[in-house]
Amino acid sequence: MHIKAAPVNSFLWEGPEGNFLRLSGVIFSRLFNKELEKGLWYFLGEGNEFINLVSQKGRVMKLIFATNNRYKAEEIQAMLPSTIHVSTLKDVGIEEDIPEEQDTLEGNASQKAQTIYQRLSANCFADDTGLEIEALGGAPGVHSARYAGADKDSEANMNKVLKKLENTDNRKARFRTVISLILDGKEMFFEGIVNGHILREKRGEEGFGYDPVFLPDGYDQTFAQIPMNEKNKISHRSRAIQKLANYLAQYTG
Description:
Elements: E1 13-15, E2 18-23, E3 26-31, E4 41-44, E5 51-55, E6 58-65, H1 70-79, E7 84-87, H2 105-120, E8 124-133, H3 154-164, E9 172-183, E10 186-198, E11 214-216, H4 228-234, H5 236-251
Parallel strand pairs: 6-7, 6-8
Antiparallel strand pairs: 1-2, 2-3, 3-4, 4-5, 5-6, 8-9, 9-10, 10-11
């Protein structure tokens, strides 16, 4: 439902955290922060546990990202239109880990998004990423972070991959990110893929995970050697995020 924001002189009362008004029995809040300049109104959900946004120019939404990784949230926020605001789990009072118990990237992303939606009834999204190696039948895939053990040791994970491939000439691999978005109760998926191959040794000190052994097609540097701003333009995550952003830009237009 689209509701136009009321003019400033329709404020019902003023409080220490912002101005409030009542419109057709629904309370709206205009907070004293940088958003004040954009003319956005925050709809206060029951118990104030989440917020949806409305504005004069069209639908503006707040999305909960099923992560407490602030870097990932900021990366996604930077790629989204200004009418969309991303919150982390911590922002909405959730600090525990969300279960990832499925055997596919799609399944894990969906499980995390569905968990948040069922708990908060709020628009949300989640992602999962894996390295898929052709000679290993797609492994480590959904188990990428814990390939060598539950402690998520990146060095041990890379060493295990290199050991398994040491007598293999087929080094084809791909990074794949899947995003599950739940919008007004409807779930949809967005995928980003970067093809490449696994080197026989580690190169580079930047990045994380399997970046030092992954050489993307068309490049002579690994993900751990490519400058971060360049990597962010071509990465599997950024490609999935861009598809998400393109969809949301149409949805809120």
